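thread: overnight batch results

M.L. [08:02]
morning all. the overnight job finished for the chain we discussed friday. pasting input first so we're all looking at the same thing
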Amino acid sequence: MSIEQYIQTVKAMDNSISRVLAKQVEDPNRFDYGGIEKPHLGLADSEYGINDLLSVYFCPESRFYLNKELRERLIRTLEYLVRTQHEDGTIDLYETNFYSPPDTSFRVWLYAPWVEYLRKIGIEKDILFLLEHFLKRAIPALKSGGFHTPNHRWVQASALARLGTLFNDKECKLIAQEYLEEGIDCNRDGLFYERSLGVYNPICGIAMLWLAEDLEKPELIDYTEKVLNLATHFLELDGTLLNTFSLRQDRGIRMPADVRYYYLFKKMGILRENGTYLYASDVIFNGNINRLGKGFNPLHLFLFYPEFKDEVIERKPLPRYGIFHFEDSGIVRINSGKNSLTFTRDSDEFLTIVIDDIDIRFRYLTSFFGKGPFIGSSLEKEESGYSLKQKLIWGYVDLLPREERGKEIQWDKMNHSLRRWIKSQEISTDITLIPEDLQKAKLCIKTEGCKGVLTTLEISLPKNGEITFDGRVTRLKEDTYLLEDGKVLYQKENSFFELSPGFKSHKLVEYRGDRSIKSKDKIYIAITFQVPFEHTLNLSYGEIFKFS
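M.L. [08:03]
and the structure it wrote out:
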């Protein structure tokens, strides 16, 4: 399996390298001369395409191995990399960050392994010199610090530790230790603070692995293993992850697990002789097969770690059957083969169902003072199931105290903190999931408090399937249906989803405070209520088995 992945990767990269070279900036009057132009940017940057060129140039099985013409192009690209590095050692991420220590740290992640590799094989001193020059200049930039986000701390600490190892710089390692003194923001489930399963969790996992290696702190690998153990429960069999509970830009996006996860599962699978990790790496590779050389490039990993292509460890399956409660994270996950259900706090898409390549999403909205969609603040295990809870309190403000009136007449300059709240109202919502088996559950919605508040349960379904109704239904808009009673059945090929019963209290389906944008690729089913109420839905999903 692994040697086959290597062979496929070499072939794909050889086929793609002409597209990379076609984007090399040839105009010597441009500041980014020699770099590889990033398609959506129209400019070269300090990352795009460089790893691809290095990978095929140093791969013995590539037809570009030590190719003279490619070498000239590669040298030109690396000269651009060094030339555009700022005097303080930082680089820019043109899309958002400038003179950026964290993005410089990500470049250390990219180029430090190449320096290790080139030192080991002992060829191409000119290329090694340029890469070492870039990394040495990055050292003072990272020593002086500066970051934006929680994960940046670990990326920078691990970059410093690796630079300390490469260049025998003890101060780098001492500063890396200082980052760890802040405490590591990973819960017992293996989810780091940003809750970004697809992007930043594996980044933090890599950072912990590097820190463990370079600071000789093997206990930090425990965090890497926690990251991977969590991911095994959420990795779909097509190699994708649906990031419903992320606090970052990947929220609500179903995306292929990337090279970072492939690296972690492969490396840790070999280190721990863990067949489940290696099975996950196979799932990720196969899920990205159409992206090989076009966004998914693990070729450098096979060069750095020959064991990646040589290992023959027996695979063990992912945990694709069972109910899993991640208490620290407030997430319930139900896996049943190709299907999964995720019930989570801290997300407006509080319930998602994946059936093979289909994803179905649930949201609950209220008209309570424009507060928008329901987001559960806690998830609790109860006798019959799992309950998401939310309490909202809002009302009106009174006049300013007499002594403050007239001091300032512009609304935005008034001291509104001095106003007292009056006529406050509140609503409390419990949404309870009661699993009946791995493909069937009840969903109980109960909202109490302020009478008359309008609410809607919204279910989004992909358009590329067949939807039928058994009961009364009103088409409110082109892609929105109000299920007044009865059931809705969705089918696509051998997959199905069924929900009942509907209910109608009103026709409001667009709410103030809801910032989501309706997808043109979705059909929306609405079920409407008015507070106070309690309603129980039956839902089932899975494969349709046909017997001949």
